[in-house]
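seq:
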Amino acid sequence: MPVPHFDVLIVGAGVSGIGAACHLTRECPGKSYVVLERRERIGGTWDLFRYPGIRSDSDMFTFGFAFRPWNEPRVLADGPAIQRYVEETAAEYGVDEHIRYRMKVLRASWSSAEGRWTVEARNESTGRKQRFTAGYLVAGTGYYDYDQGYRPPFPGEERFGGPVIHPQHWPDDLDYAGKRVLIIGSGATAITLVPAMAQDAAHVTMLQRSPTYIMSLPAEDKISEALRRVLPDDLVWRMARRRNITLQRGLYRLSRKRPGVVRRLMLRGVQRQLGGASDLANFTPDYNPWDQRLCVVPDGDLFRVIREKRADVVTGRIETFTETGVRLESGEEIEADVILTATGLQVQLLGGASLEVDGEPLPIAGLVTYKGVLLEGVPNASIIFGYTNASWTLKADIAAEYTCRLLNYLDRHGYTQAVAYASDADRAEDSVMGALDAGYVRRGNDRLPRQGTHGPWKVRNDYLRDAPALRMGPINDGILQFRRGPHAEPVPAPAGAEVPAGR
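struct:
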């Protein structure tokens, strides 16, 4: 059976992969492509996670795609709404017709002799392995392991009489109505679960080793709703998007320059929301704002259920599980009927697939990223990696746009290959997520690409600088090398003005 060949092969049909495919449709209309997706549906993260209250932790005006407005009033949308938005976007651009489901990518191998990628995947419906070839590879898989979340062992947990569940593997038949629920963790998942489960549970306790910064946002954008009465929806969306991008960036920069000021402002807001219902110490982290990602709650829903005594927050370390709950090192016992381990994610790139160039395995953690999109020494490949300090999709969008510009540049000049090479002076020790000190980043440090010390090798996490550079900056910047045909020597790229993709 002949091996199917495509101009571009995209791994993943979540936000990153679908966005990349839509950009290809818009900006490289002559390119053939296929999307390989392991799951049975579009959506990635938003199809995987099914726990109560699952929602975005970024505003939807910036989390939505730049080319397809989010026109619902909700600022933080729930998981089903986001999954539906991604599905509808794929259908609008015909991307859904290019997806092959239940295909787990096992290996991606570049051959200089053939000038193409060979991708081996396993059809998880039949168990059979299949091969595909492509001129260009796009990894839109995100950065964590879909099979297994981070789940540290707890002493004595076999003694507990009830279910112990990680939210990444939420059972459809879990009945927690009228029961005492203990949630271990303090990140976005735990903070989402508490108010959602408090509606039906007898009581919910969030047990944390250390607090997280939590900020309340309006559930709906009243400004945009008012403007829609007099202005077109598309204009209102663009205004909201620009406003929120500016606010996100402003808060992050102020947090870096004046962390004490931001810390005081955030804690004052929490204190007002709590109304004395909980000790402020439970919401006072020992690190500066944006050393770890901020958590947001719509209309202060977490604080509301604490004020109503339907939930509480406890700070402490677990000594052991007991038959009826957990005992802390302080001696305090927390009784529970159901325990949820919202303890985080495991980092994994390319969905766990291996990467090879000319038969040599490449450890991704040893590679430096170029413009946060390409990997050094890896020809014709983009890795779509979003922001850690703003909406993921902001960077995913412009990374896909840059990829399309690169593909069009290769076609205009008759090139078949592009590759970036880094020198030792370009390398830094930090990973591409080095700006965060979160536990999952530390645990996954040996699985993440590196960033560089300067120029296009350095990850800036700054949309206002990255967007013009990736959308308008020269493709031929003196670093990328280009080739015509297999085994060809690098050729000098013509200098001169360039135009954005599709023109």
